[in-house]
Amino acid sequence: MRLRITRLSGLGGGGVCPWYVMTSPMTDGATRDFFEQNSYFGVDKADVVFFEQGTLPCLSMGGDVLMEAQGKVATAPDGNGGIYRALAESGCLADMKKRGVKYVHASSVDNALVLPCDPLFLGCCVESGADCGAKVCPKASAEEAVGVICKAPGGGARVVEYSEIPEDVSAEVDPSTGELVLNAGNICNHFYSIEFLEAAAKLPTPYHIAKKKIAFVNDKGETETPTANNGVKLEQFIFDCFPHSKKFVCGEVLREEEFGPVKNAPGAPTDSPDTAKALLLALGKKYALEAGGLAPPELGGVEVSPLVSYR
Question: Matching Pfam families, A to Z (predicted)?
Answer without folding.
Answer: UDPGP
